[in-house]
Design goal:
This protein is 41% helix and 15% strand. By secondary structure, the chain is an alpha/beta fold. It has one domain: TIM Barrel (Alpha-Beta Barrel). It has an eight-stranded parallel beta sheet. It has a two-stranded antiparallel sheet with strand order 1-2. The longest helix is centred in the first third of the chain and has 15 residues. The protein is globular.
Length: 283
């Protein structure tokens, strides 16, 4: 495994294992255990995924030392008030069965996320979290958070893939020393990405799969990735991307697929904001 070093000196694996939409808890525990078995050391979950217990059970059963694992979870919008954030952290830690967390992210930039961030700063200073960051923050919201708070986010996890290259965001995060992490690195399968002719040609040139080419493209841009799969053979495939490199021309060909917008949902649609901002994950 290769690592990046976050702006506070913490090492983070370049490839993690995501569990979004792995809703069956028995299956989730199984796939996380398999992921750790084949070499993953970073696991990414969230309170809103409703599977933190399964991730925690897998971590407890995996036989790998806690200090060798990098565990991420996320705070949901419902808990963005200061005291709610502290309670939500304790709830996530109880479900995960952990004494400390490696990375905690604000899941969406809605509600009173300033109060949430200041509660997260407190937990970070207390040593209960090794790094704090955000998810789906645009450049303007990201710099605003930086300017008006004490601790700079270590990570911003945003939708990034060949159809949504996020070049401006990538350049900005590099400038601000905030690690770019990609969610939906495979565009959640949209636009028939695994059968794309350009990606397939590049894959053939390297004797690799389209998925491996996509992940390699991210890594060469300095982006951390968290691909999700429930198939062990794909877990192995996704982590086996450190033995080849794309040429500059190939990197540009992948980037040429950019459509300039999300494959998942429109951030500017107020109804999407209403849905996310009012979604409850607990009483």
């Amino acid at each position: 495994m290769e690592y990046v070093v976050l702006n506070n000196g913490v090492r983070m694996p370049k490839i993690g294992f995501g569990v979004f939409q792995v809703n069956d808890l028995k299956q989730c525990q199984q796939v996380v255990e398999e992921a750790i078995e084949v070499g993953y050391r970073s696991i990414d979950t969230a309170a809103s995924y409703m599977n933190e217990e399964a991730v925690g059970a897998a971590i407890g059963n995996c036989g790998v030392k806690r200090e060798d694992l990098f565990v991420t979870t996320k705070l949901w919008v419902q808990d963005h008030e200061y005291d709610d954030t502290l309670r939500a952290f304790d709830a996530s830690m109880a479900k995960l069965g952990l004494d400390y967390l490696d990375l905690w992210l604000i899941h969406k930039p809605y509600g009173n996320y300033y109060a949430a961030w200041r509660a997260m700063e407190r937990l970070y200073k207390e040593g209960r979290i090794r790094a704090i960051g955000v998810t789906s923050f645009s450049n303007d919201r990201l710099i605003d958070l930086v300017l008006h708070n004490e601790i700079r986010p270590a990570v911003n996890q945003i939708e990034t893939h060949p159809f949504y290259v996020q070049e401006a965001a990538n350049l900005f995060m590099n400038k601000e020393n905030i690690q770019h992490e990609a969610w939906a690195p495979f565009a959640e399968g949209h636009n028939d990405i695994f059968n794309n002719e350009i990606l397939a040609e590049i894959a053939r040139n390297h004797g690799k799969t389209v998925g491996q080419v996509i992940l390699r493209w991210h890594l060469q841009r300095g982006i951390v990735v968290i691909p999700k799969t429930i198939r062990k053979e794909r877990m192995i495939e996704n982590i086996s991307v450190f033995d080849f490199a794309l040429t500059d021309a190939e990197m540009a060909r992948v980037a040429s697929l950019d459509l300039g917008h999300s494959a998942a949902y429109d951030d500017c649609d107020p109804e999407n904001t209403r849905w996310i901002g009012t979604m409850k994950i607990h009483d």
